Backbone:
């Protein structure tokens, strides 16, 4: 299941660069492509490739070929623009789902660049109406405590959104803000005079228990992203954000993708003596199930459960300017790079250089 096999591509400039040809694309953990770069991405999809710079390797340039792409996981705080392009994906036989970070930090002004909450909730519902329930995953991420935001405040905010999304989402993914893990986050919060409060293990367990109790009226799947502690006792799972189960569920008819994932689709009732679904198999409904293997992606955080994909975003390019952002070194660099992008919006890279 290796989509990171590298060959060489000759760019329009004549530059020879290594090329990835991913089957599964992540767009993106590093910036909000749907909100700010949707036109760029879908133009590059049409062109057949884009370029990406590896921030952990001296910004070495790579090409990303979309010739083998069958599935895209979008990440966004404002994915409204995707409504203009779903037809394009369907025409190209590319399936998708959206990791939609829908927080409520309006009063505290921690996410100054996102639209009003009521508008973002409406966008969530419009996307679900177009794509179907399950393809838009609700994230309240991260859960951040400050001198102005208590645990009770967070639960109230989650309850407000959760009530409005009833019938539109199956899952709530969350994580606790780990400020000390990201030096630039702590620096930016201090610079903007935001008095954050570190989560302790006991506080996290207490919150998980209260959230689980709150969930009794929704019955959402609760899942944590990259957390050290196991909250299974509260019915909370460890999430796979690039999730083979979701990909199989929404694209099991794609034989090429299923072969890539090592999945075999079978019908129930094939065994005259046993019509049950085998342990570990994924029930697809309609008398079908999937026999699958799970392979965690290499190179991700130790606690990350995602399967392999290729992320195509670039750091320091997100103009949402969230105060706790780990992907921007600072606001000035993000604004500068976004303005450079607008001068050359269809270049090979997001930033245009």
Residues:
């Amino acid at each position: 299941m290796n989509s990171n096999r590298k060959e060489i591509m000759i760019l329009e400039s004549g530059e020879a660069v290594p090329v990835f040809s991913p089957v599964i694309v992540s767009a993106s953990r590093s910036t909000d492509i749907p909100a700010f770069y949707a036109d760029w991405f879908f133009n590059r999809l049409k062109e057949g490739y884009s370029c990406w710079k590896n921030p952990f390797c001296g910004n070495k340039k790579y090409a990303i070929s979309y010739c083998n792409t069958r599935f895209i996981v979008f990440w966004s705080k404002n994915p409204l623009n995707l409504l203009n392009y779903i037809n394009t994906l369907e025409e190209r036989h590319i399936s998708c789902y959206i990791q939609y970070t829908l927080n409520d930090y309006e009063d505290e002004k921690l996410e100054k660049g996102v639209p009003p909450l009521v508008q973002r909730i409406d966008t969530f519902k419009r996307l679900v109406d177009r794509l179907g329930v399950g393809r838009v995953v609700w994230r309240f991420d991260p859960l951040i405590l400050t001198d102005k935001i208590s645990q009770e405040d967070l639960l109230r905010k989650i309850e407000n959104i959760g009530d409005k999304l009833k019938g539109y989402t199956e899952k709530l993914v969350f994580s606790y803000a780990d400020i000390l893990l990201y030096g630039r986050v702590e620096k930016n919060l201090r610079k903007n005079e935001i008095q954050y409060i570190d989560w302790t293990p006991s506080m996290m367990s207490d919150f998980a228990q209260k959230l689980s109790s709150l969930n009794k009226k929704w019955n959402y799947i609760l899942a944590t992203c990259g957390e050290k502690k196991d909250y299974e006792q509260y019915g909370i799972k460890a999430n796979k954000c690039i999730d083979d189960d979701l990909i199989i569920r929404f694209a099991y008819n794609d034989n090429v993708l299923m072969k890539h994932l090592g999945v075999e689709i079978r019908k129930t009732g094939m065994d005259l003596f046993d019509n049950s679904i085998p342990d570990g198999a994924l029930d697809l409904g309609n008398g079908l199930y999937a026999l699958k293997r799970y392979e965690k992606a290499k190179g991700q955080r130790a606690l990350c459960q995602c399967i392999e994909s290729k992320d195509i975003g670039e750091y320091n390019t997100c103009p949402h300017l969230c105060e706790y952002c780990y992907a921007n070194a600072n606001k000035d660099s993000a604004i500068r790079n976004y303005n450079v992008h607008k001068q050359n919006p269809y270049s090979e890279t997001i930033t245009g250089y």
Remarks:
- The two ends are 32 Å apart (CA to CA).
- The CA atoms of residues 27 and 312 lie 6 Å apart.
- The chain has ten helices and 17 strands.
- The chain has a mean pLDDT of 94.
